[in-house]
Amino acid sequence: MQIPRKVEHQQTDRGTIPVYATGVVDQPWDSYSATDHQVWSQLFARQREVLPGRACQEFIDSQNALHMSADAIPKFAELNPILRQATGWELVGVEGLLPEYTFFEHLANRRFPVTWWIRSPDQIDYISEPDLFHDLFGHVPLLMNPIFADYMEAYGRGAMKAHGIGEQALLNLTRLYWYTVEFGLIRTDAGLRIYGSGIVSSKGESIYSLESDAPNRLGFDLERIMRTMYRIDTFQQSYFVIDSFEQLFDATRPDFAPIYQRLAELEDFPARAVRADDTVFHEGTREGFATDADA
Ligand code: PHE
Ligand code: CO
Description:
four-stranded mixed beta sheet; binds phenylalanine; alpha/beta; Phenylalanine Hydroxylase; binds cobalt (II) ion
């Protein structure tokens, strides 16, 4: 595999984050090594085993429809015609995390940036920044779903607007992304299921988020989420449960500007807290669940 271009590190209030070149790049598919493909196959097989009965049907159906190759890293150019035809979205290759505004502009134009490089074998269970497996396996499938696809575009436009309003507004909206797109749970007739990309791309968190007694599973509430802090370096302490993607999209239709203004006067909630008016889901543990990281 080639080396990602221009990696630097920047100290932020959420820790040290890597900074990459921001342009769109062609996926350097020929440069992937046998080890890179092997890492993909291993992660792919493992998650495909973990997800039935845990991921929502929309996620599984969408992922099946993309026909991602199990034994080799998929080619973006082969996924794009399928995705474009389904919802008009397309993938673009990037070197890694993008500056916020650049990222939002891509979403607003129905382009999803996918990191082209994949983690190394010693990072199979945990990697602190998004790589190809997280982006492609975790985020791309739901872009095949018409409602979720529209939600993501609307989010991009809303985030460009929030960026213009100010830092607090953007923080409120970033929390919405975190607790839905990255770490969302959904209620189905069969029980709670996962759809957030940070969960579906992690074996440990796929199990923990549904089966551990440790985290809170709380009913979706837009303003509650916007006020809730989060951790990026460990499993989540609270998950928010939507009833449907329609509910999520409907709740985000109103103009957020007055909401940001109102929330600016109110205090934030710790990631761990349960509040009196929260709806709490007790999914119960399956026997023998271990609370420490990956099994
Ligand atoms: N309605 C939001 C606004 O006015 C935009 C938005 C849509 C945000 C969908 C997130 C998701 O800012
Ligand atoms: Co992500």
